[in-house]
Amino acid sequence: IMADRMYTVSNSDLNVFNISNPFSPSFTKKVETNNWNIETIFPFKNKLFIGLQNGIFIYNTNNPDVPVLDGQFGHFKSCDPVIADESNAFVTLRSGNECQGFTNELDVLQLNSLSNPQLVKSYNFTNPHGLSKDGNILFVCDGADGLKIYDATDVGNLKLLKQFEGIETYDVIATNNIALVVAKDGLYQYDYSDINNIKQVSKMVVSQ
Asked: Which residues share a beta bridge with 17?
């Protein structure tokens, strides 16, 4: 959601809804991407980062009702959550899923030129899923390898700050010094207000 618009993705299209009147939202436009393997969408400022099974599309929303493709980056076929900040996009690729990929890594892309994102570095992971970033702190859910937290001040040299093992993690949202983590057995909360003493503060069990 941004600029009184809600953007959603289907398997192949980007959809725009006007929610300026929350009591009467309206469908505005369907943007055909000419692809059939969309996975995720991440908004940042006036950009939409759309993760496909084989790459990333970057759309600008200068006209919020008509997103326009600015650039793209391709990679091997693999499911790929994506996030971005002012300078970089972060993409996780993983194997062992419906996307039939064989790669398990985190790709960091430079966004100096949105029409031509460049790969900065790839990092090996076990089976990475969702990720989140707050300032220079990067959170990566690495499947059965748990939650990994990095200092991403230098994206070309990520430094592991903390790893929480013994849980199978799928997704994370980090904001206001609290990381909400979805795991196989429930919802976890971690306090990272003291980066030298990151700690679990709660767990809500979800029955299988």
From this structure: 6, 27
Q: Using alpha carbons, select from 84, 51, 47, 81 the residue that is nearest to residue 67.
A: 47
Which is it for the CA torsion 129, 134, 135, 136, positive or negative? negative
Query: Between the CA atoms of 132, 133, 134 and 138, what dihedral angle is there, to the nearest 10 degrees?
Result: 110
- pLDDT tens for each residue of 59-85: 999 999 999 999 888 754 455 688 999
Residue 38 tokens read as 């969309």
Q: How far apart are CA 93 and CA 69, in angstroms?
A: 22
3 state SS for 12-80: CEEEEEECCCCCCCEEEEEEECCCCCEEEEEEECCEEEEEECCEEEEEECCCCCCCEEEEEEECCCCEC
pLDDT band at 208 (very low <50, low <70, confident <90, very high): low
CA angle 74, 36, 139 (to 5 degrees): 55
By CB atoms closer than 10 A (0-12, 13-18, 19+), residue 55 is: buried
